Amino acid sequence: RHCTDVICCVIFIIVILGYIALGIVAWVHGDPRKVIYPTDSYGQFCGQKDTLNENKTILFYFNILKCASPIVLINLQCPTTQLCVSKCPDRFATYIDVQASYRYKPDQWNYFRQFCKPGFNNPRKSVAQVLRDEDCPSMIIPSRPFLKRCFPDFSTKNGVLTVANQTTFKDGRGKTRNVTDLREAANGINNVLDARSVGVKIFEDYAISWYWILIGLFIAMIVSLLFLVLLRFTAGVLFWIFIFGVIGIIGYGIWHCYWEYDHLKGIPGSDLTVYDIGFQTDFRVYLQLRQTWLAFMIILCGVEVIIILMLIFLRNRIRIAIALLKEGSRAIGYIMSTLFYPIVTFILIAICISYWAVTAVFLATSGEPVYKVMANQTLCKYANLTCDPETFNTTNVTKLCPGAQCTFAFYGGESLYHKYIFIFQLANAFVFLWLVNFAIALGQCTLAGAFASYYWASRKPADIPLWPLFSSFGRAIRYHTGSLAFGALILAIVQLIRVILEYLDHKLKGTQNSFTRFLLCCLKCCFWCLEKFLKFINRNAYIMIAIYGKNFCTSAKDAFFLLMRNVVRVAVLDKVTDFLLFLGKILVAGGVGVLAFFFFTQRIPVFAQEAPTLNYYWVPLLTVIIGSYLVAHGFFSVYAMCVDTLFLCFCEDLERNDGSTAKPYFMSASLHRILGKKELSPKKA
Predict the structure, then answer these.
(1) How confident is the model at residue 34 (pLDDT cuts 50, 70, 90)?
(2) The predicted structure's pLDDT at residue 560
(3) Principal localization (predicted)?
(4) 338 membership: H or E segment, kind and range
(5) CA-wise closest residue to 23 among 536, 431, 605, 598
(6) What pLDDT digit, counting tens, does each position of 405-420 carry?
(7) What does the alpha-carbon distance between residue 156 and residue 586 come to, in Å, rounded to a whole number?
(8) What is the pLDDT of residue 76?
């Protein structure tokens, strides 16, 4: 063996180093506390100790109407002045009204000014100047804290949306507006608040039942292992029982259709055609027609004949597929360590996901408060330029542009780093996809190498190498990192394009015309098909890499043409394997799920006292069912890789050897018997 796709290996290593550097830069500039804790327009955290905001833990928005939704408020910031306050407003008020009455109602002014900028206490300043300088909000509305932010206190009265039992409010700029104008700014808050209490109860259920959930998953692991071991003896029986069961069910359907067809004979109106009665929303009308049952009977007869003919002509290939399934079970029995390799893949993918998520959060929180000059004069050359509020009053801007203010504009930055944040996020997503696909490719190549060493052993299990899994893993890392990275790169590019298409479809939803929707739908469909095809090619290419040690392109080409020369066998084996493994997943998840249902609902008398008292019994139940399915999927993915590897080895064995003494077959005795003397006879030169 020699190193393959060295250039791609070098590029892959450089990209990983660059990815680490991107994470470090994001860690230096980002601050995830901006996601958890609110920050005011000065970049200070609300409630931060040893600051003026220590006792002000809630964020107040001067003009919440500028905020699109709570998601924007929490994650992206809202384009309005934000202030830390100790409590949210509990009444309607406008700055105009408060200023007009501050002399004889000082309490109203004292209450309102706590929502103004710190230190502002000049009610004699004109309303226009106050709103221009954003010293105070134009209005306050009754609010309640949610995720440490002040949101309108919505309620529904007789089906009408209200705030503090009012349907209208003054916006402080001379207009009376409806509270529905606030709907978009706080859409879904009540639902999320209700979900918080449900979330607490779900957390309590997990805290009480976590060890029982682990026991259920352990049982799923044991059942999965037993199923794989028993497939050696039951694969053929399970498949033929299912096939004959399908034939029997379809046969019963044919008889039932004929019975209905004959039963309707002579009944008035039953001889009408579908064309006569036209389209009906009540489909039961069609069941009163003889023509309907005749059509059903003809369709079922066609399906029955097709299945029987396929069994007759493909019987030998089905037997080969079942024999390979049994051989796969036998191979796993000799190399049991392969069953636990998915844990390695899971750990690698978990590391990739964690690093991607942390980097994405730090990149998203890299923004800093940006201040820009707001001037009354349209000809002011400093308008919309960035400024520093700490030193703004010492500059010449206020002299050249009277009334100009250095006000908060948005969260972001104008450095080279901040300008390319979106590009960095795309790079983060792309490298994440590349690394995840590489981890999967490494697992597939490692397992393929281990199972190939089993197939090509002359005497099984005596000639199987010692520690075949670890040897295969070492070969994959030492020689074929570049090839695995190359295959993962191609798949990652397609997946990134699919992500971008989904993003565009989501962003353009509601604004696109019929042609645009059709075009996006076609593109998404095409790239979905391309991704499935590439996964199939990559999987078989990794098997050929594990067997022969060639580069990715050569291995992919050899695997593709080898499969095309055995296309019928591929189709039969694929469907038989998919069916049996899907049946196994359903049996494992369903069996453990039923057991968990009876346990958590205290219907097993022996364990009735042990079962925990839960708020929602479906919480641990669904966790056990989904977890059991994933556990079974992890074990069965090893089995599927084993069968695919043995199949490619089997096809190579048939093409390279002829069963003679000089070129003996490496296949098992059971496959010898199924192929028969004709296929095993030496090939003529």
Answers:
(1) low
(2) 92
(3) membrane
(4) none
(5) 431
(6) 676 566 566 677 777 8
(7) 45
(8) 40
Q: Is the peptide bond before 468 cis (omega within 30 degrees of 0)?
A: no
Q: Using the 3D structure, point to which of 174, 193, 215 is the last residue of a domain.
A: 174
pLDDT in tens, 166-214: 878 877 777 777 777 666 555 544 444 455 556 667 777 788 888 888 8
What are the tokens at 133?
Answer: 């300088």
Q: Is residue 331 part of a domain?
A: no
Query: Which residues, at least 6 apart from 146, have a Cβ–Cβ distance to it below 8 Å?
Result: 70, 189, 192, 193
The residues that bridge with 170 in the sheet, in sequence order, are: 176
| Per-residue tokens: 196 | 């918080």
Q: Supply φ then ψ for residue 381, to 5 degrees.
A: -70, -15
pLDDT at residue 148 tops 90: no
User: Does residue 377 fall inside a structural domain?
Assistant: yes
Residues 6+ away with beta carbon under 8 Å from 280: 286
- For residues 168-204, one letter each, b for 16 or more C-beta atoms within 10 angstroms of the residue's C-beta and e for the rest, the string is ebbebeeeeeebeebeebbeebeeeeeeeeeeeebee
Chain-centroid distance, C-alpha 547? 33
Q: At 8, is the pLDDT very low, low, confident or very high (cuts 50, 70, 90)?
A: very high
CB 41 within 8 Å of CB 369: yes
**Residue with the two structure tokens 């690093």:** 355
Average pLDDT of the chain is: 81
As to burial, measured by CB atoms within 10 angstroms (0-12 exposed, 13-18 middle, 19+ buried), residue 531 is middle
The span from the CA of 608 to the CA of 604, in Å, is 6
Task: Tally the domains of the chain.
Answer: 2
Q: State the Cα–Cα distance between residues 598 and 542, nearest whole angstrom.
A: 44
Pick the closest to residue 480 from 449, 434, 510, 516 (CA basis): 449
Query: What letter would DSSP give residue 44?
Result: P
Distance CA 593, CA 605 (A): 18
Confidence class of residue 73 from pLDDT cuts 50, 70 and 90? very low
Structure tokens belonging to residue 293? 């049952």
Average of per-residue pLDDT across 634-655 = 85
Measured CA to CA, the distance from residue 311 to residue 397 in angstroms comes to 88
For residue 650, tell me if it sits in a domain: no
Task: Name the amino acid, one letter, at 226.
Answer: L
Contacts of 31 by beta carbon, 8 Å cutoff, 6+ apart: 362, 365, 366
Q: Are strands 149-152 and 154-157 parallel, antiparallel or unpaired?
A: unpaired
Tens digits of residue pLDDT in 456-498? 887 777 778 788 999 999 999 999 999 999 999 999 999 999 9
Domain edge (last residue) among 412, 435, 465: 412
User: Cβ distance 470 to 408 under 8 Å?
Assistant: no
| Residues in Cβ contact with 339 at an 8 Å cutoff, skipping those fewer than 6 apart | 225, 228, 332, 635, 638
Residue 363 maps to a domain: no
Cα separation, 562 vs 548, whole angstroms: 14
Per the structure block, which two tokens stand in for 355? 């690093």
Whether 446 and 323 have beta carbons less than 8 Å apart is answered as no
Q: What is the pLDDT of residue 320?
A: 77
The residue segments making up the domain with residue 88 are 58-174
Q: Does the structure show a pLDDT above 50 at 682?
A: no
Beta bridge partners of 85: 58
Q: Which of these, 163, 134, 139, 177, lies nearest to 40 by C-alpha position?
A: 134
